[in-house]
Amino acid sequence: MDSPIGKVPQPEIADKGALVTIRRQLVDTDFGQIHVRICGHGPAIVMAHINQQSSDLYAELMRELAPDFTSIAVDYPSHGMSDHIPFQPTIGDYAECIVQVLDRLGITKAVALGEATGAAVATELGGSHAEHIPAVILLNCPFYKNRKQADTTHAPLKQTFRPSDASGFPLTRTLDFMLETDPAHAPLHPTQDWMDRINLAQIQCGRHRWQALDALNAYDVGEGLKRIEGPVLLLMGEHFHYAGIIHEYRERIRRLDAIEIIPDGRFCLGWEKANDVAALVSTFLRPHRSLVTM
Questions:
Q1: Taking a C-beta distance cutoff of 8 angstroms, is the pair 249, 234 a contact?
Q2: Distance, CA of 155 to CA of 271 (rounded, Å)
Q3: Residue 49 burial (CB < 10 Å; 0-12/13-18/19+)?
Q4: Which percentage of the chain shows pLDDT scores above 70?
């Protein structure tokens, strides 16, 4: 796929397969200045990240996709290097923010890709902004039957798994702490580099770090999945805790092109399984070229 969508600033790719450059910039939106990472050439894929993380966790996936796609990874408001917002946003707000980023970059269409909370944002993009988002890729998409289940599921994150100081500011964690207390939200084989990026992202969020999780708790994922208009690729880690309820997604997604369970995968598939995800994304988008090119 060699036709770019929109006027995306194109970074240089070093010769002989060396590291692909990721360009960073700030984009003015109604939610303040939003930090984005841009990488690659070709049709656009806009990426929404896991809660309390940032676009930095997509660096590996962006580089894997770079020969065929332009990746635009967005830091939500109050996350990464984006401006902080003092109010509680909704998943719809995050989707609107991303649409504004695409508009400011001159991109008319982009595939939406997101993991965990980012999958909810991608779901909302595919339902409420279908004119700009012709296809959706969901990684480890959460599913809750109701708000009570969401609150119960996420309560341990606030109470135990993600500690803070007496003022509410997040504390850093070690790999041992993560794997002992909350392995479900870690990759199957995490490294110190991964943990360092997670700790940095928590600090960047500061006391606003629960905004994205609270937005997810209030979002009806099941109804959102029903509203996606374009084709959908659903990817799940083999050991991710929602991999056992694939039937719930089949019942709701109208144009579910494919479901792939990624072996030896758990959380942070975009980081740990970047090669596998990139290959599956390329295969999924190949027959939909007319949707994602101008």
A1: yes
A2: 25
A3: buried
A4: 92
Q: Is the Cβ–Cβ distance between 69 and 43 less than 8 Å? A: yes
pTM for this prediction? 0.92
In a domain, 158, yes or no: no
Residues with Cβ within 8 Å of residue 33, at least 6 apart in sequence:
26, 27, 82, 83
Task: Kindly report the CATH number assigned to the domain that includes residue 27.
Answer: 3.40.50.1820
Does the residue 190 lie in any domain? no
User: Three-state SS for 179?
Assistant: helix
Q: Which residues contact 103 (CB under 8 A, 6 or more apart)?
A: none
Task: Supply 184's token pair.
Answer: 């479900």
Q: Please give the backbone phi and psi of residue 134, each rounded to the nearest 5 degrees, phi first.
A: -80, -15
- Tens of pLDDT, residues 13-64: 333 334 789 999 999 999 999 999 999 999 999 999 999 999 999 999 999 9
Domain assignment present for 49 = yes
Q: Which domain holds residue 266?
A: 23-145+211-292
Residue range 159-163: mean pLDDT, rounded: 91
Q: Within a domain: residue 90?
A: yes
Strand pairing partners for 136?
Answer: 112, 232
Q: Where are the beta strands (DSSP E) in 13-77?
A: 23-29, 32-40, 44-48, 70-74
- DSSP for residue 55: G
Report which of 19, 24, 63 is spatially closest to residue 41, judged by C-alpha positions. 63
Question: Residue 8: its pLDDT value, please?
Answer: 44
Pairing relationship of beta strands 32-40 and 70-74 according to DSSP bridges: antiparallel
Extended strands (E) in 49-169: 70-74, 111-115, 136-139
Q: Give the total number of structural domains in the chain.
A: 1
